[in-house]
């Protein structure tokens, strides 16, 4: 009897604890996802009650229109910038994990851009990159490097590099803090034993620090890949995808398709395709990492 009562109470408690998170998951994830999938099969214009069924026509348009998929080339700038950002963040994390005077101040300075509002950062760098009165061109002039002066946001060959550098600057501190936390979890005894055995700094990093950080590096690379695929705020605020679409990303093109051209059906299909690409990339990344771990 008591066993039966205990099982019932356990079931009720589990149900009560799961009710709220499952409800929120359904309302804010599963239902919007299902609705997005449904809209991707229609020709809805965003405001009329008529949602004409078009089946997979929107997906055919995406895969047959080279202009839509070509913008992924612009996302690559953020991907490679994210890789470089992780390298620099790891370098600063290793340096600032040591007992240095003022290290907490340097940590704050590097982390500060991450907590700044993206819109504020975009407007700030709009003045930095201004072709006529920007501080960057003024600095180059004072350094005698006038030949390097250009329209950083108006030059189609430089605009994505300029925006990717801003993204690197903003998220550098976030990755650095993650790496510092991981470094502080490594027992100091390992480094002391390595020094006793005659290992130098590079050998300690290679055989102790690097293997201990692999899981964190996996997480950082996951965030880097997904972040590069979903870039929106900087190009949308600073360039509106210009010049002549040179800085458009897949997300900005999706937003333009929905709100500028009132083609919510095609935009929904683009959202589904992006979600599928992110899932595939994450799955492949996980498989490769797990394969490497099994190989060891």
From TrEMBL:
Q: Specify the protein's topology with respect to the membrane.
A: Multi-pass membrane protein
Naming one, the record's GO cellular component terms include: plasma membrane
Query: What Pfam families is this protein classified in?
Result: BPD_transp_1
CDD domains (UniProt xref)? TM_PBP2 (cd06261)
Q: Which residues form the ABC transmembrane type-1 domain?
A: 71-285
Q: Where in the cell is it found?
A: Cell membrane
Q: Which keywords does this chain's UniProt record carry?
A: Cell membrane, Membrane, Transmembrane, Transmembrane helix, Transport
Q: Does the keyword Lipid biosynthesis apply?
A: no
In its UniProt record, which GO terms are filed under biological process?
A: transmembrane transport
Transmembrane annotation, as ranges: 12-31, 76-96, 108-129, 161-182, 264-284
- Family membership noted in the UniProt record: Belongs to the binding-protein-dependent transport system permease family.
Q: What is this protein called?
A: Sugar ABC transporter permease
Which species is the source of this protein?
Answer: Paenibacillus rhizovicinus
* Upper classification of the organism: Bacteria, Bacillati, Bacillota, Bacilli, Bacillales
């Amino acid at each position: 009897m008591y066993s039966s009562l205990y099982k019932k109470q356990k079931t009720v408690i589990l149900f009560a604890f799961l009710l709220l998170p499952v409800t929120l998951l359904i309302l804010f994830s599963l239902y919007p996802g299902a609705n997005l999938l449904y809209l991707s099969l229609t020709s809805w214009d965003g405001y009329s009650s008529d949602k004409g069924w078009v089946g997979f026509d929107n997906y055919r348009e995406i895969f047959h229109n080279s202009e839509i998929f070509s913008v992924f080339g612009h996302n690559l700038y953020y991907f490679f910038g994210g890789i470089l950002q992780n390298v620099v963040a790891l370098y600063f994390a290793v340096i600032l994990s040591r007992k240095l005077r003022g290290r907490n101040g340097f940590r704050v300075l590097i982390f500060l851009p991450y907590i700044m509002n993206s819109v504020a950062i975009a407007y700030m760098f709009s003045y930095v990159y201004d072709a006529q009165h920007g501080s960057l061109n003024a600095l180059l002039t004072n350094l005698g490097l006038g030949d390097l002066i250009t329209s950083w946001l108006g030059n189609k060959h430089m605009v994505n590099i300029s925006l990717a550098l801003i993204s690197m600057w903003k998220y550098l501190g976030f990755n650095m803090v993650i790496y510092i936390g991981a470094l502080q979890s490594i027992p100091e005894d390992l480094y002391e034993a390595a020094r006793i055995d005659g290992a130098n700094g590079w050998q300690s990093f290679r055989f102790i620090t690097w293997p201990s950080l692999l899981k964190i590096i996996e997480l950082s690379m996951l965030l880097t890949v997904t972040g590069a695929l979903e870039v929106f705020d900087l190009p949308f605020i600073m360039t509106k995808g210009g010049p002549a679409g040179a800085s458009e990303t897949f997300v900005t093109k999706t937003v333009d398709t929905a709100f500028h051209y009132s083609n919510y059906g095609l935009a929904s299909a683009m959202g589904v395709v992006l979600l599928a690409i992110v899932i595939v990339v994450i799955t492949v990344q996980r498989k490769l990492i797990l394969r490497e771990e099994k190989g060891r």
